[in-house]
Amino acid sequence: MNQRDRRDRSQREGFLPDRAPERFIDLARMAAFDTLRDVHASGAYANLALAEQARAHDLTSQEAALCTELVNGTCRWEGTYDRILEAAGGRSLDSLQPAIVDVLRLGTHQLLNMRTPTHAAVSTSVDLAGIALGERTTGVVNAIIRKVSKKDFEQWLDELTEGMGERGALSLRTGHPRWIVDAWATALAGSPDGDLPDGELRAALEADNVAPVPTLVVRPGLCDREELLADGGRATSFSPFGVVREGNPSDLAAVRQRRAAVQDEGSQLVALALTRVEAESGRWLDLCAGPGGKAALLTGLARADGSTLLANEAHEHRADLVRKSLMAYPQNLWEVVVGDGTKPQWEQNTFTRVMADVPCSGLGSLRRRPESRWRRTQQEVGELFQLQCDLLDQAIASAAPGGVIAYVTCSPHRAETSTIVQTIADQRVEILDAAIFLPEVPDCRAATDPRFVQLWPHRHGTDAMFLALLRRL
Ligand SMILES: C[S@@+](CC[C@H](N)C(=O)[O-])C[C@H]1O[C@@H](n2cnc3c(N)ncnc32)[C@H](O)[C@@H]1O
Fold it and tell me: What phi, psi does 468 have (nearest 5°)?
């Protein structure tokens, strides 16, 4: 046994009868279990909880990598694993203590999607239950996890999807709630029952299960992309500012000095597209700026255009993040204000470019947030409808005649993308053909309305960002 691994706490504390087995658990699995409890019992974000638990358990980088795989895989496949566990246990998971369910999910992930030998997956699940939850929980864990181990993942999926329709089966086979499968189908085909090329829906869903390599952006005028390329990065496929690089971004001096930052390529492209439409120089507005990724790229591009940026953000703590992200640029180029973008503190009809990157479900970045697909609900998407409409309406009102407005979401869901623009765009604006401003990006017209751009992880390697461009008349 590794000296750092955990010995049975209750036995050491003398709570167990003499004949109870001595149990051991390695730190990576213990930390993974504690992280899952943070996610499920306290609503924590998996990535933040992972970092916290890696620190608390003092994990080595190898242990942290195993812990990350255990947590991310278990979170992504949670819905499918739960159906398997119910079938294996012959009972609803509601009849079990939630912490026991997390032990079982972790064991199921090791059995079905990692190459953990069966005896190791079973015994570590039982030991984890004994140590973390008490000896009386080991029987049920042992019984259910052994039944899971009798079939491989394909056999379980075949059994569970027998007689199911295509979308229901895809939901289980790709680890997504059914409503997201339907939303992706609508966004890709243009309508709920529209035709799709063979395999495209599955490819889109599977792309959510692959964690992206970190993408960096150089701040125009502050950092040359060559500097990051020389440091082990490779150029992004489309954005002239992007670099893909394995490893910890803050190892780079340019990142520490805020001359570069982490930013998905999709976010870079939608900001770039806004600046490519012909418009006069002047003042630009970022209506929903926090934490400031697009605001910083826009500030660099505004400087080259002889323009300046006003960045608005509703929440003070996020406005602080915007200030930090803009700090490396001279202060005469930008200003940050805190306020509700639907109740502007600025004169209307004045900005030559307006970015409305509105609050949304964030469904476009499922690949980097393993737990979020099971936390979000279809209902929540609808709840943002009025705010998204009001913010786009205010973005239009803030633009000067001839000015350009970008409506952006990190979501491909029709209800918060095309529907919002089609609802709000009126005689004040012309809807532009957004795809022509990203000529280097193939296949990016939104199926729901070809005047809009929809990026996809499986097609473009970016988050699923949506972009509409409007010209104020
Ligand atoms: C999608 S995020 C923007 C991301 C940002 N553009 C970036 O690239 O870093 C949306 C932001 O809008 C802010 N927000 C929410 N309601 C708002 C409102 N009524 N007015 C202005 N900002 C709002 C949120 O706090 C959040 O920071």
Answer: -125, 140
Three-state DSSP at 302 gives helix
Between the alpha carbon of residue 339 and those of residues 11, 288, 320, 343, 404, the distances in Å are 56, 9, 13, 8, 22
Q: Which residues of the chain have pLDDT under 50?
A: 1, 10-18
Residues 58-61: contacts with CB within 8 Å, 24+ apart? 58/4, 58/27, 59/27, 59/28, 59/31
Cβ–ligand 1 contact at 318 (below 6 Å): yes
CA distances in angstroms from 253 to 235, 260, 327, 373, listed in the order given: 18, 9, 16, 35
At residue 12, the pLDDT reads: 38
Domains detected in the chain: 6-148 (1.10.940.10), 163-207 (no CATH), 266-472 (3.40.50.150)
Which of ligand 1's atoms lies nearest the C-alpha of 355? 6
Q: What is the pLDDT of residue 17?
A: 47
The answer to whether the CB of 412 is under 6 A from ligand 1 is no
CB 23 within 8 A of CB 131: yes
Helix (H, G, I), strand (E, B) or coil at 308: strand
Q: Residues forming the annotated binding site?
A: 288-294, 313, 340, 357
CA–CA separation, 183 and 454 (whole Å): 14
Nearest to 289 by CA among 309, 260, 259, 272: 309
Tell me the whole-structure pTM to 2 decimals: 0.95
Helix (H) or strand (E) holding 399: strand 399-409
* pLDDT score recorded for residue 16: 47
Residue 21 has what pLDDT?
80
Dump strand ranges (E) for 278-387.
Answer: 283-286, 308-313, 334-338, 351-357
Task: State yes or no: is 223 an active-site residue.
Answer: no
The interface predicted TM-score of the complex, written ipTM, equals 1.00
Span from the CA of 336 to the centroid of ligand 1 (angstroms): 13
**Orientation angle between helical segments 98-113 and 78-89, nearest 10 degrees:** 100
Q: How far is the CA of 394 from the centre of ligand 1 (A)?
A: 14
CB 67 within 8 A of CB 50: yes
Q: How many CA atoms lie within 13 A of 338 on its CB side?
A: 9
Does ligand 1 lie within 6 Å of residue 362's CB atom? no
With b for 16 or more beta-carbon neighbours within 10 A and e for fewer, the 131-155 pattern comes to bbbebebbebbbebbbebbebebee
Residue 251 neighbours by CB distance under 10 Å: 11
Distance CA 28, CA 64 (A): 7
Determine whether the shortest distance from the Cβ of 288 to ligand 1 is under 6 A: yes
- Could you tell which of 267, 288, 398 is best to mutate to test the pocket of ligand 1, judged by most ligand atoms within 8 Å of the CB? 288
Tokens of residue 35, six digits: 């992280």
Contact 385, 411 (CB under 8 A): no
